[in-house]
Amino acid sequence: MRAIDWTRNPRLPRCVAGLLDALRLPGGGAPLADCSPAEWKSALYYCDRHQMALLVRHVCGARLPEAVRGRLDRDYARNRERLRRVRQVYREAADALAARGIECAVLKGFAGAGAYFPDPDARVQYDLDLYCPVAPYRARDALVAAGYESVDSVETSTTHLPPLVRKTGWQWRGDFFDPEIPVSIELHDRLWNDRFEAIPAPGLEAFWERRVRLPEGCLALDPVDALGHKALHVLGHVLHGEVRAAHLYELAYFLDAHAGDGEFWRRWHDLHPAGLRALELLAFRLAYAWFECRLHPSVVEESENLPAAVARWFEVCAASPAEALFRPNKDELWLHFLLLRTARDKAALLRRRLLPARLPGPLDSVFLPQRDLTWRVRLRKRVQFARYALGRAVFHLRAVAPTLATMAGMLRR
Description:
This protein is mainly alpha-helical. Helix content is 53%, strand content 5%. It contains 17 helices and seven strands.
């Protein structure tokens, strides 16, 4: 396996490459290069988009310019307030569900956050993920009765119901750390969608049976299963072209911290079938490529059994998700393509990803109550939607040629 040398990547801005290099585990990369204010502005926007700004603050510390550190210190304080509100939303939701005899497990977020992040208060969280495989629609009805409403979203999901939120009238103003951003609740009825992805993930049905209760009082997945879900969550984002650096760092941080825990990996091997482990290893390998974390020998050994074509994708395309904001590409398409078994599934994937037919959902004013949707607001929503849809269309068109070129290069190797 080979880690990415970010500092030699010509497709990334110098400051962004330096930050990614600085996050390498276990001790981080070289000191950050001097960057201009304009370069820092672009880099911080990249960090905000990838939910890693406060991670950079924690890891890089004194190496950051004073102005950058000052902004991140203010964001850190506001993020702590936001996390407090997330926990408050959980308590309200848990009470509403418990009143109807419905159990749910917390996925990600504050459930075991210390195992995946060096400072849990630096983890940026916008929603609350609850796993309710037994009665997801009853859970939705209970939350609707408690004052939550379904909200249309730009993003679509194949593992949870439409997000639920209290419509407070909040509107986006470009501030990623606004504590007033409504906390949405996503009710998951499954952890992976075999039918949509056309890739089976065996053994997930046992995750709910092994659920545990954390000291905080909430239900969560067993630590081994929580890692499995984290890996599948990362892999799903990879296959859909929606990778966030913070998600990969969380995985790398856990792998690094447990590199010497033989008992954990024995349980992982015993509890997760080979087909499930094979999918998890894809996420592990990408986390290693980005942040060069330490790995337990059993993880290294199983990673070496990847099919040659899949291993080649990691050699050629591991950095592509980081480059997509600056150089549109769909290189993840070929990884998904390689994992599919039938020609029908492969044809459907190419058609869906190269020329998407589905329009995105609304973008603006989605947290406004119906009574506040004046004609001016509706007009603004249409304008914002048109801008977003046009931007996505341009992205897709710009990504086609580089993606085909990548495929040609892989075939020549």
